[in-house]
Amino acid sequence: QKEVEQNSGPLSVPEGAIASLNCTYSDRGSQSFFWYRQYSGKSPELIMSIYSNGDKEDGRFTAQLNKASQYVSLLIRDSQPSDSATYLCAVGVNRDDKIIFGKGTRLHILP
Amino acid sequence: SAVISQKPSRDICQRGTSLTIQCQVDSQVTMMFWYRQQPGQSLTLIATANQGSEATYESGFVIDKFPISRPNLTFSTLTVSNMSPEDSSIYLCRVAGTTYNEQFFGPGTRLTVL
Fold first, then answer.
1. Which of A9, A97, B26, B94 could form a disulfide with A105 if both were Cys (CB 3.0 to 4.6 A apart)?
2. CB of B106 less than 8 A from some CB of A
3. What counts of helices (H) and strands (E) characterise chain A?
């Protein structure tokens, strides 16, 4: 059974600080990794994808991937109250765009 | 980005009945998937909707309970059959295009079974 593990939180971070979200996955053959943001009552929205070891930056977001450790993380710099949401880590399980999700980490940015 | 609609947006149904949920995309997409998100939980993949052939179901989900159609590259339906209160959930379709960044979720269908 392929699994994606996340700390459910809530993770509370002061406004302006860096929020760090972590994820581990079980399938060593996975090649694609995603972070989604889900606001309460809304559907998930893709914010980052990463495929190679190392860091990938997009604005205030940085995704980090370490395939040897089967570990993915998301850093949010200069956290804003609007970043308060549930962040879902997702992993691609084959070449047909099928992805599975972790249970999500609730992030709360404190004004 | 693709525009995806789902119908109905919500429904309240009686035990033992069936509900068909529609997912419509404004452009042709390669892949369509159906997920379930139970209250306070993450998304569970139900099946991959294959155009012109039978859907591919994940472990724990069967065609008799969740029949799926995909008659073309822009439309799919999921039926929740013989419903019980345990089927109360949000059902979402996800579409994927030619690259991994071309993937979007529909707005979801909130189903309550009494």
1. A9
2. yes
3. 0, 11
